[in-house]
Design a protein that fits this description.
The structure is a single chain. This protein has 220 residues and is of the alpha+beta class. 15% of the residues lie in helices and 21% in strands. The chain has a 5-stranded antiparallel β-sheet with strand order 6-7-8-9-10. Strand 8 and strand 9 form a beta hairpin. The longest helix is centred in the last third of the chain and has 14 residues. It starts with 23 loop residues before the first helix and ends in a 13-residue tail after the last helix.
Length: 220
């Protein structure tokens, strides 16, 4: 067959390579299921930054008199310290992060329900053990990372499973124990570089005006 000027025979056209069905080079480009971070703690998920804020509260106790006791005699009143620890993830207090999540999810009650941890009111408490998942205040396998805004550990805690490896610390599987039907799967997981995490904890201990490593006496 004569060939028209400027054209090539069909047999001379370059063939485009086609990958066979199931070719692994194509399969790896497909979206992959989200892996459980506890099963593969060194996966390539994003790394978060953590800091622990120390809020110092100093309260003077109120005077108390039995009914009908007169006259009132002024006297010095003891000063009570009630320091709180609030984790800050990527510069945002964890209290704000959980409030936004619960409100956006339509959970009730929500908003202003959580507060920082009060180490001074916990039994035999060590802050470094606590944030490595080895706390005396754990519930099963989960650790309170926030408590009720009133400061009570058992009233309304936010629990998380803390997984520690040589290179990472992961907070995931968050839970509100008094609302078991709530779904926190989309909250976190938060993954922290182990060295940065431990440095942040040590910085908290160094900045604290009162001991955070342990309490040998029962809470008041």
């Amino acid at each position: 067959m004569p060939v028209m000027p400027g054209k090539r025979p069909v047999s001379d056209r370059p063939m485009t390579a086609r990958s066979p069905i199931g070719d692994t080079r194509r399969d790896t480009a497909l979206p992959q299921p989200r892996a459980d971070p506890s099963a593969n703690p060194d996966s390539t998920m994003a790394i978060n930054n953590i800091r622990f804020d120390m809020q110092v509260w100093v309260n003077r106790t109120r005077p108390w008199l039995p009914p009908g006791a007169l006259p009132f005699v002024p006297r010095p009143l003891p000063i009570v310290r009630s320091d709180t620890v609030v984790p800050r993830v990527d510069g945002v207090p964890l209290t704000d992060l959980i409030d936004r999540f619960e409100l956006a999810a339509g959970m009730q009650p929500a908003g202003g329900a959580y507060g920082g941890l009060r180490p001074g009111s916990a039994w035999n408490f060590r802050i470094d053990d606590h944030f490595h998942g080895r706390s005396s205040m754990t519930t099963g396998t989960k650790t309170p990372v926030l408590v009720c805004q009133c400061g009570a550990w058992g009233d309304w805690p936010l629990l998380a499973e803390i997984v520690v490896s040589d290179s990472l610390v992961i907070w995931h599987r968050f839970e509100q124990p008094y609302r078991q039907e709530r779904d926190y799967d989309a909250f976190g997981p938060f993954r922290f570089d182990r060295n940065q995490y431990d440095e942040a904890l040590q910085d908290l201990i160094d900045r604290s005006p009162q001991p955070l490593r342990g309490h040998d006496a029962p809470p008041p």
